[in-house]
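Ticket #160: bound-state structure for 2-deoxy-beta-L-galacto-heptopyranose.
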Amino acid sequence: ACYSSSLQFTVFIECKDYLWFSYGHLSPLFCYCFSVAAFPGGQIVGNKVFITSGYEGNFDDLKQRCLQAGGQLASPRNAAENTAIQQIVVLYKKSVFLGITDIQSEGKFKYLNGEAIVYSNWQQGEPNDEKGRENCVEVYGNGKWNDRSCGEKKLILCEF
Ligand code: 293
Ligand code: CA
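RESOLUTION: The complex was predicted; output attached.
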């Protein structure tokens, strides 16, 4: 009863010596014990889980898909969380969009709930708002951040 082909995200919930593994929304009814190695698209940091389904799209599309799945776009609040995100970028060889933008006020990067960011890891020379149209944030394979046009297509990475 653990598998459902209609649901898009694989979710881990840590518990005791095992990782609980389920598909779709967090639901104790659909838990299953599994090793984290069985699902390299997932990373657990503290009580936060980062997960990709491998899907690629623009910022609005990815944001919506994470919300629909009951999570939100990855929003790292410290170096450990950023490293977990970096590992997924390296594994998939694709950069991701974070749940951070300066859409509201140029140069003032905020989480999607409007809170000013408490952690950043900009690449040297970034954010540069190239051509005045970069309000989203991508993560490179070195873990560093670059502001980027929200219309670009990136790998989805949600947090739960
Ligand atoms: C410019 C200068 C590059 C930089 C790039 C990115 C685009 O082309 O060095 O890598 O902008 O900031 O988002
Ligand atoms: Ca840039």
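RESOLUTION NOTES: The pocket of calcium ion (ligand 2) is lined by residues 126-128, 130, 134, 146-148 (CB under 6 Å).
TICKET STATUS: resolved
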